[in-house]
Amino acid sequence: MQSAAKQNYRIQLWISILSLLLFGAKIVAYHYTNSMAILTDALESIVNVIAGFIGLYSLYVAAKPRDTDHPYGHGKAEFLSAAAEGALITAAGIMIVYETVLNILEPNPVQRLDTGLWVVGITAVVNYVAGSMCLRIGRKNNSAALMASGKHLQIDTYSTIGIILGLVVVLVTGLYWLDKVIALLMSIFIIYNGYRIIRSSIAGIMDEADTELLKKFIRVLNNHRHPNWIDLHNLRVIKYGSLLHVDCHLTVPWYLNVHEAHREIDALVELTRQQFGDAIEFFVHTDGCLPFSCSICIKDDCPVRQHLFTERLEWTLTNVISNEKHRSGTMEQ
């Protein structure tokens, strides 16, 4: 198991244990208060517990090395975990609506809200800190499962804060029916965020392009371009859990020998690993430059230049994902 994968697994293990403890605290708070809004928070915490252990298993699977059946590794398991977590969040929101409607039909009196508020307030702080840590490490290690857990914990925090503010209003005004309204509003918020997590995980499963990641990748290459990197096209970046898989075509001077061309690829790989970490693999196809490449070639000391340099072509999201070689003002296959 790689160091990043070990760190992801260890963090997710602590998150799973923490979710179990916080769920217990919220159930105690509901027992004291009989508040539907607090029950809403507790029901969402059930999802935290289940999703935490699903995420833990997915990180274990994703950390397995590639094999003959999975030549690109097992990283897609993280997206499946995130999809399951999003589905559970949505289901929790629907369950909250159901429980709230039942409580409206058969009302139970709210009591001891002050005690309950202190308990859920503490859980909100703990959740936010844990969620921030998950998001920070998840972004660093490109872990979809860890980022889904972090988002879920912060969603839980925001819903808890909303519940606390609403219940403070209930305490001040004595309008106890607002407890049900708060529960319904928070359930809509929970369902919406569950949908967003599902949407994001399906995008990963379907290899949908990560536009922001591609833009950052292109910006790094533009800012550190080597003279022998004449052109770049057919760029694709695919996520396999914490692993980034990069395909591209790199145009280099036609007279470079195999070893010299490979050194240019090594330099490109080293540059990107400095920016994006070691969990990245490259499949780079090298093309020899053609006469029309001279107009965009920034190499000053080219011994075989046939045409004048006219403009430096800035690589952009539009022109590097195209499977076409570039020249000044136009493109050619």
TrEMBL record:
One Pfam entry name: ZT_dimer
Membrane topology: Multi-pass membrane protein
Domain Cation efflux protein transmembrane: 16-205
Chief localisation class: membrane
Protein name: Cation diffusion facilitator family transporter
Protein localization: Membrane
Domain Cation efflux protein cytoplasmic per the UniProt entry, residue ranges: 212-287
Assigned protein family: Belongs to the cation diffusion facilitator (CDF) transporter (TC 2.A.4) family.
Alphabetized UniProt keyword annotations: Membrane, Transmembrane, Transmembrane helix, Transport
GO cellular component, one term: plasma membrane
